[in-house]
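Page 47, continued from p. 46.
Same chain as before, 269 aa.
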Amino acid sequence: MKVNYHTHSRYCDGKGELEDYVKTALAKGFTHLGFSGHAPVPFENTFAIKHGDYKAYCDEVRRLKEEYAGRIKILLGLEIDYIPGIMDDFAPLIAEGGLEYCIGSVHLVNRNLGSDLWFIDGSKQETYDEGLANVFGGDIHAGVTAFFRHTCQMIESQRPTIVGHFDKIVMHNKGRYFSPDDPWFHALAMETAELIRQKGCVCEINTRGLYKGRYNDFYPSRKLIRAMNEMDIPVVVSSDAHSPDDLDKFEGAYDFLHEIGYRNVVEEW
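Result:
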């Protein structure tokens, strides 16, 4: 299976032109490639498409879609952040861009609709720790619960095509604050998985933590993937590529799915 729907480029926090990804995907034998730049957000940042570049991004994907028709199927998408009170309606961006799909993700967590945000992603563990202290007073249970509540609110209200890395809150934890096997954490993750099932979303199996050396498992974890198989939740494997060379860094995900007999793997829609 050579498909990837989680792809970032120089328009956001990735590297390389869109066409670089297309050419690399063709060279690697891909049949489908979806672009999912980080959606514009209403505050200063270094990771998202700038509001003024959104039209150019969409137009370029559509141009490549037409130019490479018959050789590879290209889809226009976005990875949209869900932040209650700040980014909680995906419809305007979807309509403005004429998107074919979207990935809904939580990277930033607030408390009681506040403007202070806990950034749970990125390369710096210190940012995770500082945000936890500043926004949640160091209360990891409250912070993690808010992360999963945001994710469930997003699934319930927005029904994104794909739910992105829904347990990524573990990445910078490094076993310091909690264990993913703690009953309270597992219960929150399973509640989220059940809502994904109910709303008919696709859940991504994200491999970026493995090949970047930031985590020792997929997002979601193998334990959760086994449970999701029993729930018949559709999944799609993604490398969360930030450079063309990342496109096929699937890190044994397909082998694992084959090993456990996963029944509902999505390749296209």
